[in-house]
Amino acid sequence: MGAQNKVKNAFRTGFENRCLKLLVAAYEIAIQEKTISLDWDENDITAQLHEYIASNQLRLDWSIISNVEHHLHKKSITKMKGFAAKYPRIDLRFATIKSSLEYQYFFEAKNLKGKSSALKRRYIDTGIESFNSEKYFNGCLVAYLLSGNVKLTIEGINSLLVKDNREKETLNKEICKYHDNYYESSHSNIQCLKHYIFDFTLIQN
Asked: What does the pLDDT look like over 15-61, one tens digit per residue?
């Protein structure tokens, strides 16, 4: 790898870490201020978190732009009347420009409840699989846990993956210095998918 590519990769990694820091900071404020209702849709939660992200001075210091419900353009979609509605939309986008190059990073959000097999299945089918199929790219999953226990909920997701004969794709807890509830999984089309679990049940404490 050339020196220029090393610099680009280092900048990209630093940018992704800053995006995560902004999102985690928003989550921590939401827990402290108890602004999230546990009956909210995931888009409601993302919108509230984005308010904190948008008002965070670090976002401006780091020259980062953010928005919700971002369209991911696909060259494979034929442009005819109504084509824009066919573009996939991802929940949260961060972007910055460095030396005439634009870098983007995305988060897809999913609600989870400890006793809801339907939400766990949806996490797999419309979360994990959206990245594995490359419908979504250059990003990760963030789960909003609204009831139950993080460890048991992840075990439930893994049980469904094993049931589907996808043992190699199960979520494994890893260390992240920015957030405790962090997991990784490996998939056929992507080397690693990152999962951040935001435990909103803490609001009840």
From this structure: 999 999 999 999 999 999 999 999 999 999 999 999 999 999 999 99
Q: How far apart are CA 165 and CA 58, in angstroms?
A: 43
Distance (Å, whole) CA 193 – CA 141: 8
**pLDDT per residue as tens digits for the range 161-202:** 999 999 999 999 999 999 999 999 999 888 899 999 999 999
* Structural domain count, the chain: 1
In terms of pTM, does the model score above 0.70?
Answer: yes
CA distance 48 to 50: 5
3-class state of residue 172 by DSSP: strand
Nearest CA-CA partner of 194 in 202, 22, 179 = 179
Element spanning 98, H or E: strand 89-98
Tokens matching residue 154 = 């992840």
Residue 52's region, left for phi above 0, alpha for psi from -120 to 50, else beta, is alpha
Query: DSSP state, 204?
Result: G
Residues spanned by the domain of 181? 3-204
Q: Would the CA dihedral through 79, 83, 89, 94 be positive or negative?
A: positive
d(CA 194, CA 183): 6
In which residue are the tokens 């280092």 written? 10
Distance CA 29, CA 113 (A): 21
